[in-house]
Amino acid sequence: MDLGRNSYPGYVCLRSTLPYSRMANNPTLLFLHGFAESREIWTEFTHDFPAEYQLLAPNFPGYGSHDAPLAADYSMEALGEFIKEELERAAASQAVLVGHSMGGYAALAFAEKYPAQVAGLVLFHSSALPDDENKKANRDKNISFVERHGVEKFMSTFIRPLFANSNEQTMMNERRHLEEMGINTPHPSVLAGMQAMRDRPDRTEVLRKATFPVLFIVGKEDLAVTLDTSLAQVALPPVSSALFLDRVGHLGFVERPTETRRAVLDFAAAVFAK
Questions:
Q1: Which residue among 50, 91, 139, 270 has the highest number of C-beta atoms inside a 10 angstrom radius?
Q2: CATH number, position 158
Q3: What is the β-pairing status of strands 28-32 and 95-100?
Q4: 228: left (phi over 0), alpha (psi -120 to 50) or beta
Q5: Nearest-CA neighbor of 84 among 120, 50, 109?
Q6: Largest Cα–Cα distance of the chain, in whole Å?
Q7: Residue 235 structural domain
Q8: 2 within a domain of the structure (yes/no)
Q9: Are the C-beta atoms of residues 260 and 253 closer than 8 Å to each other?
Q10: Are 76 and 108 in contact (CB under 8 A)?
């Protein structure tokens, strides 16, 4: 699968031929990438979305290229403020937020502070729970590894386990592209991103108090956000739904793009039909 690495250069609106001024009144979907990724992960995923949607897919500060300007603050709270700025720039009063992994953590931080601006939330292999002590210890080990050996060597082992076992060999091109994307992430962003994920708070209360519907997309072989972790959260929001996928790890947008794309489209259609 071609993830569209050369598409939509330098602009965060995936409807790149339409300026924000012409799309401000359109239903908005804001796609948020994960750790050591970029907005490129959404290019192929959203290529056939209906034209009436305003599709936004920014790079988080400090991500997207090896020479991306570094962020002053990589915390989830700072990323939540970045989301607010992006929606203001797009003149969007509300949006469905689609967050992959760390993108979901940032979306939850935004939803905690600005719930009225969330029309719906898709936690795409993501979680409102904080890291437990074991996961924090693993983050610290990874931070030390990057400090000693660099980003490139880290990515050679980090990406592979994100795929389900059955997809490791059949999706080598996708794996290599994600590794390249990770290697292209500035060294300080990799370190600060892991620290920010390690230190994020419990936001399950955001789900309990959600005034918006929530969709969980869950890989049954996800080692990063496990099935049990997701099952514990699906019942928390007043209105929620879930897609559970066999033979999928942490990367459903490439491992099962047809099913996950349809789930997001159906969710958005239901949200904006109200």
A1: 139
A2: 3.40.50.1820
A3: parallel
A4: alpha
A5: 109
A6: 52
A7: 20-272
A8: no
A9: yes
A10: yes
- Which DSSP helix (H) or strand (E) runs through 219? strand 214-219
Flag whether 1 is in a domain. no
Q: What is the mean pLDDT of each run of 10 residues along the chain (274 residues)?
A: 30 38 72 98 96 97 95 98 98 98 99 98 98 98 98 97 96 97 98 98 98 98 97 98 98 98 98 91
Q: Judge whether 10 lies within some domain.
A: no
pTM listed for this prediction: 0.92
Is 167 in contact with 252 (CB distance < 8 Å)?
no
Q: For position 274, what pLDDT does the model report?
A: 74
Q: What total of structural domains would you count in the chain?
A: 1
Given this model, what pLDDT does residue 144 score?
98
pLDDT at 98: 99
Q: Which helix (H) or strand (E) covers residue 243, if one does?
A: strand 240-245
- Number of neighbours of residue 204 by Cβ within 10 angstroms: 17
Residue type for position 210: A
Is 244 within the bounds of a domain?
A: yes
